[in-house]
Write a structure and sequence with these properties.
Elements (H helix, E strand, L loop, with lengths): L5 E2 L37 H12 L8 E3 H21 L7 H14 L1 H7 L5 H8 L7 H10 L6 E8 L2 E11 L15 H20 L4 H20 L16 E3 H7 L5 H7 L7 E4 L2 H13 L2 H16 L5 H16 L7 H12 L1 H12 L2 H24 L5 H13 L1 E5 L17 H17 L21 E3 L4 E5 L14 H18 L20 H19 L2 E3 L2 E2 L6 H21 L13 H12 L2 E3 L1 H10 L5 H9 L3 H7 L17
Parallel strand pairs: 4-6, 7-9
Antiparallel strand pairs: 1-8, 2-12, 3-4, 5-6, 8-9, 10-11
């Protein structure tokens, strides 16, 4: 359970499958056809860089968004598909990992077996729920569901102690909601009320599919909404959760009991096989007061239906089609605007990557990310870190006292490129061909046991959070490191063949973005060792906040859909990282160019090529529903504003494109922190 990770694009997409017939497609680096030259770069750079691509790439019916990231997901997915299908062919020569990923995938694809078995594979869990006589039975049942990966009532796991990052501690956190986040339960606009109505109907439909009579299912669905609303009342909103101090409360175990005495914690910790600890991080104490009230106020029948619903939701992809379709209709269509469900093989490959990511990833790396690529990316990372040193030296608003510690943090910042040094051992995980649900639940329990097993042991600083095929990247404040899976180290972000300035605009800007996260409004609160502590002077704090407020105001004015605008406070860290990251990428690109390499390529100067490399990785079409959901829940701005919002603050852009004052890409009151 990693609370503080800051990611490059927000929505995580692991590699799954694109097409049953097509080979992996090459993706262009700089794409001249993507341009819309009817628009001036200084008027709308996003449209100039991406307009041609946007017109030629409508959203497929089985997607809620389609962008340059999506193209790469699909290319990676084709590779993963081939890996999984080869591994699924039964052979005595298969390795242990090939057996696991192949049989997992084959079992997921066996929908005929799932239809025949119905809910039988869930009989132990359902029997456990139905056997509850009173709420005193709740801890043991919740423990069993948590081990199986079902999000019920609250969450539990391990994390680095944010104030002593050499230790792994137990964390008990918020959880148990069916809607995306707390404010979905309380907003009063028509769209939010409509979604709540649809959610209650969806819960009712799932309960009826599980065998409840219509009247009982309707009554229980309404009661579940009220129960979840009670839990949501105790949660922080998405903006408040961005403050690390708001979600860190290390307390004695006894205080958890005082916060929620209606739940027998000792019985739960024993049943969940948690190690004995004297203290733990109670992420949001107020939530556990709300949990205590919900347990007291919810009758046993409603509680059983609530647990059944969340069990069905967790396993719906491995249940008969009627459960799978019902879950899709709400979570994908109603919430995100997806018209058609993805092909079965796409979803099964996603599941295999999610449950056995490093077993899948090891094979992916062997095919898609060679040593030459790794060496080149490592050089770009080193150059961008060097640019940050130069940038820090030029910062005139930071005192020498704080700047000295910023240098120290930068020097200690680590990086991981491509894949883990040591691959995860899945030998204790049993994967049985033909047992789709069982495989998924055992994989969940494997991950759960692994998480709790870290408590009290040395921190594994080499561990990865994302699997190698993932098209994303992240900065981990408690580790103070930046991480780039092999999945994103591909075109259009990076290529060995194209002009290096495009690489700096693509993957270089992503690298700079993640590095800047160490110094954004969240990351800057962690020191060189990853500890959450105050290392800034008051003067520097005030100076930083004044500059950050500029971003809050700028992005808070950008429209999304209908009456929804971006939330400048929610997206602050990502917007600061976009600006700082692109500036570092530009500095590093120009510093690495020899004098004889400054000629135009494709008709563009080196500076223009960096900006085009950046702009074109963000080309993206999205449904209005998914954009609304992103604006309400995601700390990342929409693609068009990530591009135009960033470049309009940069004199480097204005010089590169000869923009005059008064054009849209020249902000009069430009925002800058780094």
């Amino acid at each position: 359970m990693r609370k503080y990770i800051l990611v490059a694009i927000g929505l995580l997409f692991a590699a799954v499958i694109a097409s049953a017939a097509e080979p992996a497609k090459a993706i262009a680096g700089f794409d001249a056809a993507a341009l819309d030259t009817s628009v001036e770069p200084c008027t709308n750079f996003y449209q100039y860089a991406c307009g041609g691509w946007l017109k030629a790439n409508p959203i497929p019916a089985d997607q809620t968004r389609w962008g340059r990231f999506s193209e790469l997901y699909e290319r990676n997915r084709t590779i993963v598909r081939d890996i999984l299908e080869q591994a699924a062919a039964e052979s005595p020569r298969r390795s242990a990992n090939e057996q696991k990923i192949g049989d997992y995938y084959a079992s997921c694809m066996d929908t005929q077996s799932m239809e025949a078995k119905g809910l039988e594979p869930l009989k132990p869990q359902i029997a456990s729920i139905n056997a509850m006589k009173s709420k005193r039975d709740l801890p043991a049942v919740i423990a069993g569901l948590h081990r199986a990966g079902v999000d019920a009532l609250f969450g539990i796991g391990s994390e680095q102690d944010a104030k002593n990052t050499t230790e792994m501690i137990l964390v008990v956190s918020t959880g148990g909601l069916g809607l995306p986040e707390r404010d979905y339960y309380f907003r009063t606009d028509a769209r939010s009320e409509e979604l709540r109505t649809k959610y209650v109907q969806h819960v009712e439909n799932m309960l009826r599919l599980a065998g409840q009579q219509p009247e009982a299912a309707a009554r229980n669905a309404g009661a579940i909404m009220e129960m979840e609303k009670g839990l949501a009342k105790g949660m922080l909103d998405v903006v408040a959760r961005r403050s690390p101090s708001n979600v860190y409360h290390k307390l004695p175990v006894s205080e958890l009991t005082e916060l929620a005495p209606n739940f027998e914690w000792k019985k739960y910790f024993t049943a969940v096989h948690a190690p004995q600890v004297s203290g733990l991080d109670i992420s949001e104490p107020e939530f556990f007061r709300a949990l205590n009230s919900s347990i007291a106020e919810t009758d046993i029948g409603t509680m059983k239906s609530y647990l059944l619903y969340h069990l069905l939701t967790e396993t719906s992809g491995m249940l008969p089609e009627r459960f799978d379709k019902e879950t899709f209709s709400f979570y994908n269509t109603a919430l995100r605007g997806q018209k058609e469900q993805q092909a079965r093989w796409k979803r099964c490959a996603a599941s295999a990557d999610g449950k056995l990511g490093e077993a899948v990833g090891k094979a992916f790396v062997e095919r898609a990310f060679g040593p030459e690529s790794k060496a080149r990316v490592q050089a770009i990372v080193a150059n961008i870190q060097s640019a940050m040193r130069t940038n820090l030296a030029q910062i005139d608003w930071m005192t020498d006292e704080t700047k000295k510690q910023a240098y120290a943090k930068l020097e200690k910042l680590g990086n991981k490129i491509g894949y883990p040094e040591t691959w995860r051992d899945y030998s204790s995980l049993s994967i049985v061909r033909g047992d789709g649900i069982g495989n998924a639940l055992r994989a969940n329990e494997f991950a759960f046991r692994r998480s709790l097993g870290k408590i009290g042991k040395p921190v594994d600083r080499l561990e990865w959070v994302m699997s190698p095929p993932t098209v994303n990247a992240y900065y981990e404040p408690t580790m103070n490191d930046i991480n780039f899976p092999a999945g994103i180290l591909q075109p259009p972000f990076f290529s060995l063949e194209r002009d290096e300035t495009y690489n700096y605009g693509g993957i270089g800007a992503v690298i700079g973005h993640e590095l800047t996260h160490g110094f954004d409004d969240e990351g800057r609160q962690f020191d060189l060792n990853g500890n959450l502590r105050e290392w800034w002077t008051k003067t520097d704090n005030d100076e930083f906040n004044n500059r950050a407020d500029c971003f809050v105001q700028q992005y808070g004015d950008y429209p999304v859909v209908e009456d929804v605008k971006l939330n400048g406070k929610l997206t602050l860290g990502e917007n600061v990282a976009d600006g700082g990251g692109l500036r570092l990428a530009m500095m590093a690109a120009l510093a690495s160019l020899a004098d004889d390499k400054r000629d135009k390529v494709d008709g563009f100067t080196p500076e223009q090529r960096v900006f085009l490399g950046f702009g074109q990785i963000w080309c993206n079409n999205a449904t209005p529903q998914s954009e609304r959901m992103q604006a309400l829940t995601d700390p990342h701005s929409l693609s068009r504003w990530r591009v135009n919002g960033t470049v309009s603050n940069m004199p480097e852009f204005q010089n590169a494109w000869q923009c005059s004052q008064g054009t849209a890409m020249v902000r009069q009151n430009a925002c800058r922190v780094w």
